[in-house]
Automatic annotation (TrEMBL):
It is found in: Membrane. It comes from Candidatus Trichorickettsia mobilis. Pfam families: Cation_efflux, ZT_dimer. This is CzcD superfamily cation transporter. SUPFAM superfamilies: Cation efflux protein cytoplasmic domain-like (SSF160240), Cation efflux protein transmembrane domain-like (SSF161111).
Length: 289
């Protein structure tokens, strides 16, 4: 029998929106593969491979959103909320590998420049950038609150940056007939993706290791608890994140109250303050007199 204290949180992005983004991203991949093959453009085919990795990442985020809404069970009392964090961790690793591959290929292309058909590259890359920019706009707001959505958002922004970089490279190549700009732009984009994904990896590891949330100062939290009327002191304080937007906290609380009713009043006051000031939505307090 599942536990009574189920935890459900409103989705920051609807399943329909994530489904649309996944469909559009895979459409970009297919379109670039076809055009790249017909035009014999390695640059476009490489960008299609880049978009394919990101399409998998977006689909993974979509799946994790769906599975996280599964009801809690006796064996999983917090439900499946951590699937979103696991997906974020995996996506961050994919981003890092992808960035290293881009930088590696850029280095080899710098040493051995490859002829690029500028006009084909410009048209296809501009279309890909437009679609990914639209996808990014759909996720921008939610990416500030949910690191799983932020993972998908960073993948898409990486696509936009890459596509616009390819557009610039295509224009430069058409004007100067110098193809060396292609690996230079690719290397810059690879460094940008690497920098972004390392931060994302750190955030997801911190959650999986049940570290204190970065937005909470543990000393300020302890001071706020101890300054509550009726509180003598608190100890054995733990704060961790279940998933984005779901912060949990537990501690022992010593009060100067001698009745259950008075202690409950202190308890309710603390729960309200922690939720309002620190956004801690799940608090477990063991009261001692």
């Amino acid at each position: 029998m599942p536990p009574a204290n189920s935890h459900h949180f409103p989705a920051k992005v609807s399943h329909k929106t994530m489904g649309l983004i996944t469909f559009l991203t895979f459409s970009v991949v297919i379109g670039e593969l076809i055009v790249g093959y017909l035009a014999n453009s390695l640059a476009v085919i490489s960008d299609a491979a880049h978009n394919f990795a990101d399409a998998i990442a977006v689909a993974s985020s979509w799946y994790s959103m769906w599975i996280a809404e599964s009801p809690v069970t006796a064996k999983r009392t917090f439900g499946f909320h951590r699937t979103g964090i696991i997906a974020t961790f995996v996506n961050a690793l994919i981003l890092i590998v992808m960035a290293l591959i881009i930088c590696y290929e850029a280095y080899h292309r710098y040493l051995n420049p490859v002829a690029v058909e500028g006009m084909v590259v410009i048209i296809v890359a501009f279309c890909a950038a437009s679609v990914n920019l639209f996808n990014g706009m759909l996720l921008h707001k939610a990416s500030k609150e949910d690191i799983n959505i932020r993972s998908a958002f960073l993948h898409i922004i990486g696509d936009v940056a890459t596509a616009f970089g390819v557009v610039v490279a295509g224009i430069f190549i058409m004007l100067t007939d110098i193809s060396i700009i292609d690996p230079i732009v690719s290397f810059i984009v690879g460094v940008f993706i690497l920098w972004s994904s390392i931060g994302l990896l750190k955030d997801s590891v911190a959650v999986l290791m049940e570290g204190t949330p970065s937005n909470i100062n543990i000393e300020e939290l302890e001071q706020a608890i101890n300054s509550t009327p009726g509180v003598v002191r608190c100890y054995d304080l733990h704060v961790w994140v279940i998933t984005s937007g779901f912060i949990a906290c537990s501690f022992h609380l010593v009060t100067d109250k001698h009745t259950l009713k008075d202690s409950q009043t202190v308890l309710r006051s603390l729960e309200q303050e922690l939720a309002t000031k620190f956004n801690i939505t799940h608090t477990t307090i063991q009261i001692e007199t």
